[in-house]
Amino acid sequence: MRPQEIVAQGLELLGPDRGTVLVEHRSSANLRWANSTMTTNGLTSNQQVHVVAHPEVGHGLAAGSASGVVRRREELVALVERARTAAVGSGAAPDAAPEEPGTTPSPTWDDPPARTSPESLAPVSELLGEVLRAPDIEHYGYAEHTMSTTFLGTTGGHRLRHDQPAARFELSGKSAARSRSAWSGRSGRHFADLDLAGTPDEVRTGLAAQATRIDVPPGRHRVILSPSAVADLLIYLLWSAGARDAVEGRSAFALPGGGTRVGHRLTDLPFWLRSDPGAPGLTCADHVRSTTSSAMSSAFDAGLPLSPTDWVSNGTMRALVTTRHSAGLAGLPSTPFIDNVLAGVSGAEGSIQELAAASAMACW
Questions:
Q1: Taking a C-beta distance cutoff of 8 angstroms, is the pair 319, 311 a contact?
Q2: Cα 53 to the chain's mean position, in Å?
Q3: Are the C-beta atoms of 109 and 161 separated by less than 8 Å?
Q4: Which domains does the chain have, with CATH numbers?
Q5: How far apart (Å, rounded) are the C-alpha atoms in residues 277 and 190?
Q6: How far is CA 198 from CA 38, 184, 185, 352, in A?
Q7: DSSP 8-state symbol, 100
Q8: Chain segment 88-125, per-residue pLDDT in tens
Q9: Which residue among 35, 87, 176, 357 sits deepest, i.e. has the most Cβ atoms within 10 Å of its Cβ?
Q10: Is the pTM of the predicted complex or chain greater than 0.90?
Q11: Is residue 361's pLDDT more than 70?
Q12: Residue 198: which residues within 8 A CB-CB, separation 6 or more?
């Protein structure tokens, strides 16, 4: 069955009940190497269907979901019934919200799912042809290119599609004696758009730095984190910035005695943190695709539009991740989770090497 047929028939099978059908199609091409030798490669494709049912129960609407592989109508019928049964068993949902009417279908709604191919890995293969010949370093790593397409349909009329390409490259190296190791990586939409050529030198620089050993006494020390380490911390910060947790006093963004830190200054630095579905090189879905409810998401919000959101601006907290339900609890605007994050310090520039050199001079 085509994804569009699954969406249409799934919504039909929900009958009088409100609900959502989301089809996720993913294709992936990958390479893996170890001991400077290619080990595995592959091309995979899979599809997952998620059905959310919102039947009326008691004095409200319930929410139940079921996921699985659908190849024929009988499997879709069973999936819808599983979702409906789960919903009835869960009782009225506290985050139930009015159904948003559908907008104009995505222009490419009827097109086949986007797919990747082995050719997407050509820039990686070309680089490895040179890198793996190095006699003094053992190289290990992984490269993967994926194309994910989601088809979202709701009983309210939404027919929304999103195609998401993603490229991930990781290169590590070990010294000849295997006493030192270093890593470098890149991520983006396509390998052809990434600076892969700089990664071998970054690995060599890391190995060379480890050749010098300095004993540091126990205590508190100032350190400089790599961009990738900072990104990991900021991603976790956003994952922890749910409004419901804050208003219930269960996160660092809660105020003693009640309320949230929205509008409060977090740092004196002109730090900013934002998400934007249309950010160049980091584009992501411009609509909510939630099929479950949690502190950060609501199954009742599927299809809601997403727009650029400032989480922190000039060091001040401007927003927390909300569903329509948690926004009401916290008295905040609706600012759903967005699947990318951008950060910076206004007026600051320079490489990590320049930052390290400046810090070293300051210490003297």
A1: yes
A2: 25
A3: yes
A4: 3-210 (3.30.2290.10), 227-345 (no CATH)
A5: 17
A6: 20, 9, 10, 15
A7: P
A8: 999 999 999 999 899 889 999 999 999 999 999 999 99
A9: 87
A10: yes
A11: no
A12: 184
